[in-house]
Amino acid sequence: MSTVPDVIARRPAGEIPEYTKKDFASDQTIRWCPGCGDYSILSQVQTVFAGLGIPREQFVVISGIGCSGRFPYYMNTYGFHTIHGRAPAFATGLKATRPDLHVWVISGDGDSLSIGGNHLIHAMRRNVDIKLLMFNNRIYGLTKGQYSPTSEVGKRTKSTPMGSIDAPFNPPALALGAGASFVARSIAVIPRHLRATVQRAHEHTGMAYVEVYQNCNIFNDGAFAEFTDKSVRSDRILELRHGEPLVWGKTERKGLVLDGLLLKVATLGDGVAESDCLVHDETDPTLASLLVRLEGPDAPLPIGVLQGGPPHLRRGLPGADQQGAQDPRQRRPPQAPECRRHLAHRLIGCATSSARSRSFRRRRPVGSAACSATSTTP
Amino acid sequence: MATAATQTVERVVIRFAGDSGDGMQLTGSQFTRTTALAGNDLATLPDFPAEIRAPAGTREGVSAFQLHFSSHDIHTPGDESDVLVAMNPAALVTNLSRLRPGGLIVVNEDKFGRRDLDKANLDSNPLEDGSLGDFKVVSAPISSTTRDAVAPFGLNSKKADRCKNFFALGMMYWLYSRDPQNTRAWVRKKFEAPYLEANLAALDAGLHYAETVELFQGTYDVPQTHELPEGRYRFATGNTALAIGLATAAGKTGLTVFYGSYPITPASDILHALAAFKNYGVATFQAEDEIAAVGSAIGASYGGAIGVCGTSGPGLSLKAEAIGLAVSAELPLIVVDVQRAGPSTGMPTKTEQSDLLQAMYGRNGEAPIPILAPATPSECFDVALQAVRIALRYMVPVLILSDGYLGNGAEPWLLPDLDAIPEMKPSFRTDPEGFEPFSRDPETLARPWAIPGTPGLEHRIGGLEKAEGTGNVSYDPDNHQRMSELRAEKVARVQQVLPPTDVYGADSGLLVLGWGSTYGAIRTAVEQKRSKGIDVAHVHVRCLNPLPADLAGILDRYDTVLVPEMNLGQLSRLLAAAYPVDPIPLCKIKGLPFTTGEIEQAIDAHTRSQA
Prior knowledge:
The structure holds 2 protein chains of 2 kinds. Chain A is α/β, with parallel strands linked by helices. Chain A folds into 3 domains: 13-244 and 279-335, Rossmann fold (3-Layer(aba) Sandwich); 246-276, no CATH class; 338-378, no CATH class. Chain A contains 13 helices and 11 strands. In chain A, the strands form 2 sheets. In chain A, strands 2-1-3-4-6-5-11-7 form an 8-stranded mixed beta sheet, sandwiched between helices. Chain A has a 3-stranded antiparallel beta sheet with strand order 8-9-10. In chain A, helix 6 links the parallel strand 5 and strand 6. In chain A, helix 1 (38-50) packs across helix 6 (191-203). Chain A starts with 37 loop residues before the first helix and ends with a helix. The model of chain A is unreliable at 316-336 and 350-378 (pLDDT under 50). Chain B has a 7-stranded mixed beta sheet with strand order 11-10-12-13-15-14-21, sandwiched between helices. The mean pLDDT of chain B is 95. Chain B folds into 3 domains: 5-221, 3-Layer(aba) Sandwich (Pyruvate-ferredoxin Oxidoreductase, domain 3); 233-420, Rossmann fold, CATH 3.40.50; 503-610, 3-Layer(aba) Sandwich (Rossmann fold). Chain B is of the alpha/beta class. The chains are: A alpha/beta, B alpha/beta. At the A-B interface, strand 1, strand 2, helix 2 and helix 4 of A face helix 11, helix 12 and strand 17 of B.
């Protein structure tokens, strides 16, 4: 029995219109507060969807409750505004019976991490082929300003007049812990980066989890200013690019080097060269978990794809037809970074003279296999 | 060579009782299958604790299985048993009150030592203290004989002892002249060496022991019934029949049936049954919790599948908000509640009908939904199909109220003629011309089912109030009133597809009105009273919301309406609110089904008071 009801006539490939962003905008008046970060997210998603070469009717946007929950009403696709926190469950049932659809879940920090935490982690664990954008503004906006599960300790809100005593979640660390195959972070105020990240989420076969830092200018204005303010942005944000060194900084070039089992921020030129810095590897969950744990006044905010999952989960090029996208022969394996500057290499030792690395190799013979697996550059 | 005489009897009730690890449910279900093959009508009542293994030998750990089989058409597992097979003292004392005076007790005498009696809190040995004087007692060394019988197969003593349920089954097969071949075949399929040989040896040893030792005065035969219609039968519990009904709905609609469920007693067997039906258009999903289960089912319905979720009372509470969303979004959905004793965790393995008002009113806002209630295990099949038919025709969530007694209880089920079941082809909207997601069919008030993937019908739905027609978010006061009334009227129109209510018996005087699993006890009681010349009627309501259109006229004809329910009077309240009647509740809330005797007593009380 076909899972797709036979009433649905697939458009022939030649009949897919050339969409523009406007084709993905519904006729509904947008009711977010002026200045809200959600506008940018909506705009970037519409832009990316228009360029994917996928018929509009094959997109379904499913949301829960909160300011983010209104997102589907503004998308000229199929949309379902469900109940608080449960959107991943609805999306799972839909995707399980309709694998032909592109199912996107829109959620917020309260929706995903508080009331809907259970559904979020299980969707990740199952690696359902849905895409989830989690708008993190570290506050409850729709209910007018209570602290959220990502609010920092000491946060004063209407419900915590003397400051929050609860430790916040580290959302990407939670995602990695739940076994998410794709974990990324982006920022609403950097449209270029957000578009690229949404595009990457689409290309991933499996659950793609994207945390989007989004400013609530009414109840939590400036929540991310320490990273996103234009005056500091280039010195505080580390844009992750697969196979490229983990370096950043405009006024001062900095990079991430391995110090024991931790990442350390090093200033380049001070006896440390760029070639000493680690190289980003999306396929390495260990590196991802170190990156999401970066803390401290000089620590950068890593944005981009923290973990892209194993190469076989990467879809074909955008614009490829559905069959092609799912044909394993057409999957494009990502370039594996040069072995020598790879974290696994640094930790386990492959061709290095470091005594520490050698001792790791002796204790964990599995390491050489891990290294050879990641060093095969096609 | 059997020398004992064989006596023909019309009906027998056997109750197997033992520790929850003794395999009594297996023994009971094997006897049931064999009896079904022998052509008897039958009804069963599994009665077990929630604990998988309560401390061995204690009263809390007793698990029982009651089977009623007959040469006649029967409706209940029987009020009292004729035979009690008790594997230990605790099983004996906790089940004795359900044995008829003069009934037969078969006990495992190996388990009546001082320590066994202590575990059952007994000061004296009932086999010796004269307390069983009203009964015939057959005391057999079941454990030790079983151990001897399986000695060649090298099992340790603990494992050898676990074969004793087959020994007891063998004794009963001999006593009731049953053919053990079916069980032998089942053992060969189910077990591997050495357990296969050991269980077969134990079964045979039981048969031979009963034949040889002459503990029984003779054997009994319950001849095949000729009152059931001819055809092909299978043994079915309510949960199995319901699962088969859902799979049949997949075939009849051409749609995928998506069953999202979180394991919960006593509904899990529906999930187990459906998980095997992948080749019949069924997809199952074991969700992370009750809310995800219903959410995934609604998501599947949104995409053009038949979303179904099964649960029990506590799970229904958790699903309330999501069911409200399906009401608001006007999507088809089937929710099955296999009710159990509440509130809260209650008594998970015990039956009850106390979720009726929750089903009716347990959601925020005005959120009416159709509620169907099967009356017998085999009727669960028909109700599953009817629920799907209603859900698709009216674009509405439908709730099925089964219960633990129906779900686990079994009866022979005449396999339906699949060709006679009408097709239920869904009508998906495909034409973009003039499409509005919340326009309505003039007859049913259903909105169009426009599923994602259909070009030109892109639209948004959700839990916010929608403008009539366009479905755009609307806070308009008049629109909200109109939409609330439309959603209620849509459910009321389900009356269009309800069959006329069947009235059994008298057309005035006393009416016994029930719903759900009380059917068997009520029908048997009313039949018996009528056979004694007492004029009384029985009506069983299969659709509780909306109530059938002809019910008002029926109720009007009777002076007294007696409503037996396994709750504190929930249907009585609904009837009193809907009609000018003053129903008399007959409430039993003990985790056990009504006995026929209890209904008969109530009929007596009300016919006497009329006289």
